[in-house]
## 1
Amino acid sequence: MTTLQDKVAIITGGASGIGLATVKAFLDKGAKVVIADYNEEHGKAVEQELKQTYKDVVFIKVNVAEEQQVEDLVAQTVKTFGKLDVIFNNAGVGVQKPSHELTAEEYKRVIAINQDGVFFGAKYAIREMLKTGGGSVISTSSILGSVGEPTSMPYAASKGAVNQITKSLALEYADRNIRVNAVAPGFIESGMVNKEALGEFYDGLVAKHPLGRLGQPEEIAHAVVFLAENDFVTGTTLFVDGGYLSK
C-alpha cells in the first residue's frame, strides 16, 4: 500500500469544491501539493490560507484546455518539488441547455476542459512518471458518464470519454507501474448545487439518491485518496454516488 507521505501531487480545479477538499486531504496525508486552477485571485488566497498550516503547498494558474499551459504546469511542479507522483485531473465545467440550442463554442468549451484537459494532464504527468518508476493518474468522471441527462449532453459526453480514457491508459501503462483511475461522483453539495440555489428542484435531486442526501466534497476527496494509495487498483471508475446508479 502506497502512502501519500512526501508524494508530490497536482490537483486541477484545486481552489474550490471537490478539488479543494482533495488538496486538504492530501496535505493531511503528508503530500506536497500543487493547487492548479484558472481562478488566480482565489487560488492565491487559498494558497496563503493553507500555508498557515502546511508548508508544501503552492498555487499555479492553469487553463487545462491549453496544452502548453498543462505542460508548463507539470514542468513547474517538477522544478518546485523534484518529481510528480500523482495528478488529479479534476477541473471541469458544464452547460445546461437544450441540445438543439447549443452553440458550437459552448459544446467545444466543455469538451476542451473536461476531456482534452484530462488527456493533457495524463500525457505530461505520465511522461514524468515514466522517468521515476511509476505514479497515479486520477480523473473526475461523473454518474453522467454512465447515464444520460436531458440538457447536459456535452457534459455527459465528456465524462463518458473520461471513463474510456481511464481504461485505455490503465492497460497501456500498467506494466510500467502507472495506475490510472477515475472517481465518479453523484450530485455533490458544492458551488451552485445547494438548496438555496436550486430552490424547488433541490428535493427532487436529493430523491434521486437512495441515501436521501447529496454528497459532500470531502467524501469524494476520501475516494481520491483511496485511489492514490491502493496499489492494486487500476482501470477503475469508482462511483461515489449515494446509490444513484443502483436504481
## 2
Amino acid sequence: MQKTETEPLRISYFKPDFTWREIADAARTTIRMEEGTKEPTSAWKRKILLSEHSPIRLMLFKWKWINLKYWVSVHFVRHKIGIEHFVSTQRTDRTGVCRDEVSQDATVHHQCAANAQSIIFISRKRLCAQASAETNAAWKLVLAEIKSCEPELCQLCVPECVYRGFCPEFKSCGYSETEKFQEALKSYRG
C-alpha cells in the first residue's frame, strides 16, 4: 500500500459478465416457461431490475479501482451480500513498509465482482448526500461504466431517499424536501 499523490483514482478495467438472454431464461424458468428466442426489451429490463427479482443476481460486473484511498476502500468492503472484494495488502512482510506507519489515506487497488442487486444496494448508501464525497466519487466511476453498457440498471441506482420515497437517515440533508427530489422520485418510478 503506497501513498500516490500524483496518480488520480481511476478504474483500470470494467467488465460485464452475463447476457440478457440468461436473465430472461432464468425469469422464464421461475414461471415454468420454456427458453425464449426473443431478446428482452429495454422496458422489460427496467421492470425486472426495478422489481429486483432473483434473475438479476446473474448480472455480474467486475471492476478494479486503482489509487483508491484505504479509508474509502473500507467503506466499500462493508458491503457483503452479492459482492466480492480483493484489496491490495498492507502486510509488512509483503510491502516492506510497517503497516502501523501507513496512513489511512494511502492508496490501494480494490477489485470487485458484484451482481446487479448489490449494485442497486450499494448505490442506495453511497449516493446518499451523507456519504463521504470521496466514496461517492469512487462509486460514480463505477456507475459511469455501468451506464455505458446497461443504462436501465444505471437509471435505478439512486440514493436511499429516492429508493424508499423518504429519507430514513438520523440527520437528513434536506434533499427529500426539495422539488428536485420529487423530480428524481418521479423519474425513478417511471
## 3
Amino acid sequence: MKKILAIVFIVSFFGCQQKKAGKIQKSEKDDWWLWTASWSPNSDELVVGGTQDTLRLFSSKDLRLRKNYPFIGTITKTKWHPTKNKLAIAVQDGRSKPAILNLDTEKITELDSISIDGARAIGWNNKGDLLAVGDYEGLLVIFNEDGNFVKKIDTGQKGLIGLDWHPKKNLIVTVGERIAIYNFDDDALVSYEDREEDVLMLCVAWHPSGDFFVTGDYGDFEYHYPPLLQFWTKEGKNIKSIEKSKAEYRNLKWSNDGELLATASENIRLWNKDGILVAEKDSENLLWGIDWSREGDKIVTTDEKGSIIIWDKSLNQREELKY
C-alpha cells in the first residue's frame, strides 16, 4: 500500500494539480511553483528555484536579483555548502541533472548515477566533503565535494523525498514511504515505520544538537489522515506527533541556534524544540520553500504562486521580493 501511495504521489509532482485542505486546487499558473529557498551560511546571498527553469540568486542585503541560472526542469531542492560558496541543486523531470554550482568560478558540475526522473532530496554533510542525493528510485547516492561518485545505497523505497545529515556525524536520515537512517562510516541502514496509516513523508531536519530530528508528512485528506509534524529520537523512537496543519508540510528548517523550527504548509509556523507552537501567520498561498537567514533574524518562504516572502522573526513584518 505504501509503495502504491508513493507512486501516486510522485506522479502528482509532474502533474498540474495539488492537494490542499482536502480539495484538489489548480494554480493560476501551473508552471510557477517555487519549490525551494536557501539562504547562504557564508555570504549575503539567497537562492530560490522551482518550475520556472531558472535558479534565481538574490542579495540578502538589498533583496535585489543578482543573477539567473538556467536549468531545464523543476528545481526541487537547493543546499549551500557549509563553508564554501557552492550550491547543491536537485532537479527533476529528466532534463537537467542534479548539479553542484560553484558561484566563485561559475562552474556547474552535473551529478551522474541518478534516476532519469531526477531527485528532490539533497544535502551536504557537516564538513562539506560529502554530498548525498536521494532519487525517485529510492537510491541514496553519495558524491565527494567535487561531484565524483562515491557509493550508492538502495533504501528499498519507491522514492526518497527528503534527507538531512546529522550535524556532527556521518549519519543521514531519509524520508519517503518510511524513515531510513544510513550510517556512512559503518555502511549500515536501518528503517522505521513513521505511522500506522499509509502516508508519504516530505521533509526531515535534525535538531542542531543532533539529539533528535523532526519530520513532516503529506497526510491523506481522502482518508481523513491529518498531516503530522513528528519529533523522533536519533534512534528512531517517536517522541511527539503534532496534528495542527490543514495542508501537507512541504519543508521545515531549524534556526542555527536550535531555538525555533520554521515549517511551511498552508501557514508559516514557528515551534520551539519541545514542539510547542510559538508563532503562526496566514501565508495566503500554500508554502513550499523555507529557510532562515544566517543571522537568524529573518525567514524566507516561497509558495505555489511564485511569491518570495521575507518574514521577520516575529512573523509580524513581511516583504515580497520582486523579480
